[in-house]
Write a structure and sequence with these properties.
Hypothetical Protein Yjia, Chain: A,domain 2, 25% strand, Rossmann fold, globular, 13 strands, seven-stranded parallel beta sheet, alpha/beta, 367 residues, 2 domains, 14 helices
């Protein structure tokens, strides 16, 4: 096995958070020769065209543009091939990957680590997953209800931002000049409710020293996954406890599990009047009027969405069901005679709420 000596730094963050500005500043620093991969979902890669105009430092940067897909799925093979091609240049000291603003960092990291395991002779390794956070947007749209009606209806946006915050080992808090010191501290506190371990680096216009991104411990997938409040709740809470688990930050969490389905109308009513004490909610649910589909329920601040996903295994045709049970008999371990594998399993995270009150509200929606 060859020595893994070329660090990969994945830069994530929602559209407009400042990823490209961060990369522009990194390119200007005369420290190390780096390579840059820019992933953009559109047919015209504006980010890459901006970076091309950074100045003479680009002469020391090998840049690859990847368009019309995501590096964690449709462009995965192409992405890995480019990583290997760039790492073959012995003068390159690090490779930065600017991910699309709508990419899920856990998927990118997972795809990369799977590749590392399969390609034993690779010289590259995942150094960091960095989330660039627009603190002004977090303050306005997550901590305070200042969104327009159109923005509020697009709840998937804030949930994606939360996913990017929850799965990283470094947060770049960008645009701090748009907030007062008190507002910034409020944002930091809110972020810590969701992500309790990743280092936070405040900055203006993406001005961060390159050494800060590279001179740090290596990425650990399991450790980073456990950073998130959602995963902590799943790992640490005993489902049968009467009280919610409380951590050192005063954040309490619990996992709600119930086989019986929710009444859709009643659940929608609950979402419309969601308890303000709940900071984050995430999990799988199902409705009595749809025995086929798994629903993903996500809430972050004042935003909540329900998204239809794949089918329950119980809903598969009988022959397909028999085949999968034969291949994976463990599926039957939690099988219910009436509901099969259908189950509501949701993590609730918040401050200053009574678990019994939340549970009662949930059971009021159960049929």
């Amino acid at each position: 096995m060859s020595k893994k000596e070329v660090p990969i730094v994945v830069i994530t963050g929602y559209l407009g958070s400042g990823k490209t500005t961060l990369m522009q500043n990194i390119l200007k620093q005369e420290k190390r020769k780096i390579a840059l991969i820019v992933n953009d979902m559109g047919s015209i890669n504006i980010d890459a065209s901006i970076l091309n105009k950074t100045g003479n430092r680009v002469a020391q940067v090998e840049m690859v543009e990847m368009q019309n897909g995501c590096i964690c799925c449709t462009l995965r093979d192409e992405f890995m091939a480019e990583i290997e091609r760039l790492s073959a240049d012995r003068s390159i000291e690090a490779i930065f990957v600017e991910a699309s603003g709508i990419s899920e960092p856990s998927s990118i990291a997972g795809a990369f680590l799977n590749y590392e395991e399969m390609a034993e002779d690779t010289r590259v390794y995942l150094k960091s997953v960095v989330s660039v956070v627009d603190v002004d947007r977090i303050y306005r749209e997550f901590l305070h209800d200042l969104m327009t009606e159109e923005e509020r209806e697009d709840g998937d946006v804030i949930n994606l931002i939360m996913d990017q915050i929850e799965f990283c080992n470094l947060m770049i808090l960008n645009k701090t000049d748009l907030l007062t010191d008190a507002q910034l501290e409020e944002v930091k506190s809110g972020l810590r409710n969701l992500q309790q371990e990743a280092e936070m680096i405040p900055c203006v216009n993406g001005e961060v020293d390159l050494d800060v991104l590279l001179n740090r411990g290596d990425f650990d997938f399991d450790e980073v996954e456990a950073y998130s409040a959602v995963q902590r709740a799943l790992n640490n809470c005993e489902h049968e406890d009467e009280k919610a688990c409380v951590d050192e930050y005063g954040i309490s969490s619990f996992v709600f599990e119930e086989k019986k389905p929710f009444n859709r109308q009643a659940f929608e009513g609950l979402v419309e009047n969601y308890p303000e004490a709940l900071i984050r909610t995430k999990g799988y649910i199902w409705f009595s009027d749809d025995w086929d589909h798994i629903q993903l329920f996500e809430q972050a601040g004042r935003n909540a969405t329900v998204t239809e996903l794949s089918e329950w295994i119980s809903a598969w045709p009988e022959k397909e069901l028999e085949a999968v049970v034969n291949d994976f008999p463990d599926i039957k371990d939690d099988w219910d005679d009436t509901y099969g594998d259908r189950c509501n399993q949701v993590v609730f995270i918040g401050k200053g709420y009574e678990k019994s009150d939340i549970v009662k509200m949930l059971y009021d929606c159960i049929e």
